[in-house]
Amino acid sequence: MANELLSVPVAAATAAVGAAAVAMAVRRVRLTAADQRSPLMGVLGAFIFAAQMINFTLPGLPGTSGHLGGGVLLAILLGPAVGIVTMAAILIVQCLLFQDGGLLALGCNLINMGVVPCLLGWAIYHGVAGGAEKVRAWRQYLAAWLACVVGVTAGAALVPFESAASGVLQVPLSQFLGLMLGVHLVIGFCEGAITFAVIAYLRRVRPELLGLDPDEGSSASSGPGYVAVAASVLVTALLLAGVISWFASSCPDGLEWSYRELRPAAGDRAIQNQSPLVAAVERWQQRWSPMTDYTRRTSPLGQLPVEASEAASQAASAWARPDGWRSLAGVLGTLLTLGVLAGLARWTRRTPAAVLRK
Amino acid sequence: MHHHFIDRFAMEDSPIHRLDARVKLLAVLSYTVVLISFDRYAVAELAPMAVLPLGLLWFGRVPVWFALRRVAILSPLILMLVLMSPLYDRGLHPVAFGPWQYAVSGGWLTAADIAAKFTLGVLALTALMCTTPFASLLEAMRRLGMPQVIVLQLGFLYRYLFVLIDEAMRVRRARDFRGAALAPMGRRLAATGGVIGSLFSRTLDRSQRTQLAMALRGYRGETRSLKRLHFHRSDAVYFALVAAYLVVCRCWYPSWF
Predict the structure, then answer these.
(1) What's the pTM?
(2) Contact state of B190 with A201 under an 8 Å Cβ cutoff
(3) Given B126, B165, B197, which is nearest A205 (Cβ)?
């Protein structure tokens, strides 16, 4: 979040809320200060910065790498109050020392990246993993994954609302929200995987840090199990497809708009293609594709669709409509794409890693 | 150690460096408030606002290319939003430059406005950080009423930031030399988890040792520092100048522009 996306009243209001939340967290840490686990949270903040240096390449996406975001892991390990205070220190240093995130946006960033992920992530992790005494690895994995996905995404979803309340940005709220949700679902997924790996390691090596009996902690050292991993991958992809199609369908996207609406002085479309072959292919596609333009057909299969009236589509673009058919189309498309990708991966099996393993 | 990478100019000496940290912090804060209070179509009106950050950089003997490189490093995310805005706000706005008059779409005006505000805001913050040591800034925050606990955490974060980053980079190099990039996904994730986990437990141990050492040396919850901030006449002059400049920029920007 940057200064420029906020107005002064919104910045002041969020700063007040963020400061109040940090003050409460500080009080809470003080009350439990006898606990020797969290003496100097600033050092933990430095740890989060350092842990972000340790990245690892993502599968299937060459050139990109994932790294830890931070807040949720600290909240799970040391409680939400310590997490919030540490994130406050991190965000202030990030703003001042690295000029990343504006001075006046500090309140917003505190809420989006500190308070919301820490509280939600902590609650969800302990809700799903249950009592920390005996928890199976797959359940722990699902808990970490859910905590990170929900915590990170919920915090990021606040950004469009804050900038919309400021009235600075003219990008429609639904588009911005769809973008933020999509990107942060992926980030939350990666963060969940790393968070699980860290917690699993600490469980095995230093169970007393997690409040476990040192003699019993080593039981959960195995992997999370393929079913749990596959389920989390699938649910993330489905959420991604559902959310993005839900919001992206409300208005035509930038490219589509640029050739549909940008009429030059001649009063015609910017892109023209008179070739009979293109027209024939388009007609054939409209006649036979089961879900034209990501929604249900209005005409029976095999006939050309009736042109929708311009006024109806204008009215529809005001806000993302919860159109179940569009979401279904997105989900089905994702399943199909996943199938094709899996087939391709099987076909191009001879990666360097496979060679090395032989 | 990479200690002096970001704030390597903060330890030098210049008239700006010698100003009171409290005054400098308050000046940059009020500058930022005025900056974002401009209308979203304001572009030419922002031109006089460039005087303060550039002046601070110039008199603080900080190379302008260094500050501009910070802007470039930080720009990708904001650039994406800037490029999105011309697509949506297509109402036309009259723009006049001397005798020339144009009609420009609101989206492009907003894009230019956001980019300008971003650049100026980052330049002002960079100017502050490059002319003020972090320790003085912390003392200034404490004297301005920031809670003691937060100031202490910030101090420790700054103190250990570069120590731990060095350690993390060492461990990462060791992991990569052992061929972690070629391992299957599960192993790679487990290796990353192990590296971060061991870093975490070592950090906790380190902070406990530090805590004990501080307690043994008589730490009882407040820090005592030999660093004193002094408010000179030059500080008062500087603050009055900045306040007058901001008021002029905001209320009386030249309408003939």
Answers:
(1) 0.76
(2) yes
(3) B197
